[in-house]
Structure formats: structure tokens, C-alpha cells
Specification:
The protein is of the alpha+beta class. The protein is built from three helices and five strands; from the N terminus they run ααβββββα.
């Protein structure tokens, strides 16, 4: 299942494409997928989502920062924390 399919599932359960009706259903979903645990907050945003910020240097994509749980860290800090 993909995050898109989770949204479709919430809309089906709510029998509506109106966010006011399907967001409560989306909040109930707790799914473990290829990208890890997928759960949603009261606004329908993914809880504990991670985003990598890249820059283009010399024709190559280079990671420069990670945003996770509302906190930003450099890519180097993120890698150090994984050890």
C-alpha cells in the first residue's frame, strides 16, 4: 500500500472526498510500509516524516540537510547519529 492508497482508503471509509470528513479516518490509519511507519496527525500530515534537502553541485545531487519531526539537521549530523 502507498500513502496515496491510504488517502483513498480514508476517503472510501468516510464515503467522501471532503477533507473535513476523511481526515478523521486518515488519522486512525497506522501502517508500516517500505518507508517505515506511516501515521497521520490531526491535519492529515504524516507524523515523524523525514525529508532530505538536496543541492545540485557540478551536475551531481548532494544531500545537505534532513528534516525529521520538525527538526532540521545537516546531512553530516544525520549520518553521525546513525552510527
Amino acid at each position: 500500500m502507498t500513502p496515496r492508497n491510504l488517502l483513498i482508503s480514508a476517503m472510501q471509509k468516510a464515503n467522501s472526498s471532503d477533507p473535513r470528513k476523511y481526515l478523521p479516518e486518515l488519522q486512525k490509519i497506522d501502517f508500516t510500509g517500505a518507508t517505515g511507519k506511516i501515521a497521520f496527525d490531526e491535519k492529515g500530515d504524516r507524523k515523524d516524516a523525514e525529508m532530505t534537502i538536496f543541492t545540485m553541485k557540478g551536475g551531481k545531487l548532494t544531500p545537505i540537510a534532513i528534516v525529521k519531526s520538525g527538526k532540521t539537521m545537516t546531512y553530516e549530523e544525520f549520518i553521525k547519529g546513525m552510527k
